[in-house]
Every structure is written in structure tokens, then in C-alpha cells.
């Protein structure tokens, strides 16, 4: 039996680095779709709002969405690789993470940074002091020391 290469894998199983630019865009849209599903939207509606088909979304979400009684259901968390940026020790960095909880934490941090800059109240960022996220290579990145 001939071994198939990575190009034959489901898009959900591919690493972020192995995705084409087009597939990265589809994955980002699929991740926004699953986020909306977790807030109550249907797969079809959420995918349509992101400009992709439900078939494309399901392909990029893999086992993190499944049908139950004819309706697509999203898992509470996922381990899908995605690229994100944030500020670490005062510098903007880009990382590849594979945990939806870390992605959510990064979003909360970036919102806190936005509010701190808008209000001038740096204490908004205090709860992120010493908080770290781990990238796919095992590197630890601290939001704020």
C-alpha cells in the first residue's frame, strides 16, 4: 500500500505551517464559524456569515464539530493550530498555538490592552501579569512581567 503524503490529509489535521495561504484563510474563517457556533449560531448561518460553505467549515474543523440529531454541534474547546499575534514583554510577537483556550486568552488580553490605552488605566492589565501561553513548539510567552 502506498503511503499518502500530507497533502491528502483533511485540512483540519494539517499544521498551520503546512497550509497554503488559501487554506489558512479558510481555517481562520472556520475558526470564526466555530466561535459563533459556541455562542448559539448554526454551522450553516455562521459559515455563511464568514463567506464559506458549511462543507468547507466542517472540513477545517474536523472532529471539533459533529452532528447530533441532525444539527451540527461544536465542542467546547479545540486543538486546531492557528497563528496569533500579541504583545509579550512590550514587543509584538507572532506565535502558532493549538489551543482555543489560549486563543481566547490572547483575545481577552488584546481587548484589555485596547481598553488600557483608551482609558490610560494600566491597572486593567494587572490580571495578565505573569500569565503565559505555550506555542506549538513548546515555547512559553508571557503577556506581561
Give a written overview of the molecule:
The structure is a single chain. Helix content is 37%, strand content 19%. The radius of gyration is 17 Å and the shape is globular. The longest helix has 20 residues, at 100-119. The chain is of the alpha+beta class and 145 residues long. It has a two-stranded antiparallel ribbon with strand order 1-2. Strands 3-4 form a two-stranded antiparallel sheet.
The secondary-structure element order is: HHHEEEEHEE
In angstroms, what separates the terminal alpha carbons? Answer: 53 Å
Number of helix segments?
4
Number of domains: 2
Rg computed from alpha carbons, rounded to a whole number of angstroms: 17 Å
Q: What oligomeric state do these chains adopt?
A: single chain
Q: Which range best describes the helical content: under 10%, 10-25%, 25-40%, 40-55%, 55-70% or over 70%? A: 25-40%
Class based on secondary structure composition and strand pairing:
alpha+beta
Shape: globular
Mean pLDDT: 91
Per DSSP, what share of the residues sits in E-state strands of 2 or more residues? 15-25%
Major sheet: 2 strands, antiparallel
* Uncertain residue ranges: none
Order of strands in the sheet with most strands: 1-2
